[in-house]
Amino acid sequence: MKYLITGKNGQLAQAFIRIFERQAIDFSAPEESQLNITDYNAVIKAVTAYRPDVIINCAAYNLVDKAEQDKDTVFAVNATGPKNLAQAASSRKAVLVHFGSDYVFDGCKESNLYTENDPVNPLNEYGKSKLAGEQYVLEALDQCLVLRMSWVFGAGKQNFIYKLSEWARTSEYLKIACDEFSVPTYTGMVVDVTLKAIGQGMTGRYHLTNSGFCSRYEWAKLILNTTGVRKFIRPVTMDTFDLPAKRPKFSAMSNSKIADLLNVDIPSWEESVRSFLKESAAVHE
């Protein structure tokens, strides 16, 4: 099996790369300057040259607030890019793994966690672009795996854990939203479950998150308690921050469908957060 990874420098791509290197798996992860997924000719050239069995699309535009004023770019990367990859995968008869987002939902569901059958209604340009991307992939390709994630964290700087540590270092106290709920999702878990799903030939759309859910405030408390950082956290509402992009207040998704099909126990968000923080501390000692 040969894997082609896009978005090489992102935290999810780096998690795949670490596992592939450790297990001596055949993969190619070109620099983003060499494989711009918004350029159809560049995508076809890369796929034709490497001839992958599986394409893993980790490239994404995830600056949620900036996307409100940068609609063309966010749709190019999150919608047109996946469409290009799906067409290239089809020509090569390769499997395409594409990652979606909980921001396809509006947060209005009250009865339970979101499932794959719930109606979508994105509130911001980022969410709309992610929805368009997954729809393009599913329409263009039978051999595809679309995995929706939320609040992704891992090694790198584009995640809440890193940002919180920076805020704690530079601020007297912290204000964190207590009315925004979803599921912190660890890149290491995503890689493990994704590779199991590929190995079993799974196709279609699934929710892939850690188990359980929490508010941003609860997540922040666990991070600081685990790392031993003493800092006062003031719980506030999302409206306090007056951000350009509207966000769903509750977008926690159920992972039971993919967990049941693969017969795997997906760890709780608390377990994965603690494990990641302990590993990170060991690395930096």
Give an overview of the whole structure.
The protein is an alpha/beta fold. The chain has one domain: Rossmann fold, CATH 3.40.50.720. Helix content is 42%, strand content 16%. The chain contains nine helices and twelve strands. Strands 2-1-3-4-5-10 form a six-stranded parallel sheet, sandwiched between helices. Strands 6-9 form a two-stranded parallel ribbon. The longest helix is centred in the N-terminal third of the chain and has 22 residues. The model has no long low-confidence stretch (mean pLDDT 95).
Specify the number of helices: 9
CATH superfamily: NAD(P)-binding Rossmann-like Domain
Residue-averaged pLDDT, rounded?
A: 95
Overall SS class: alpha/beta
Please mark out the parts with pLDDT under 50 across 5 or more consecutive residues, or reply none: none
Q: What topology, given as strand order, has the largest sheet?
A: 2-1-3-4-5-10
Number of strands: 12
Order of helices and strands: EHEHEHEHEEHEEEHEEHEHH
**C-alpha Rg (nearest Å):** 18 Å
User: What is the CATH class name?
Assistant: Alpha Beta
Shape annotation? globular
Distance between the termini: 36 Å
CATH topology assignment:
Rossmann fold
Helix content: 40-55%
Taken as a percent bin, the fraction of beta residues is: 15-25%
Major beta sheet summary: 6 strands, parallel
The number of domains is 1
Tell me what the CATH architecture is. Answer: 3-Layer(aba) Sandwich
Briefly summarize what is shown.
This protein is α/β, with parallel strands linked by helices and 285 residues long.
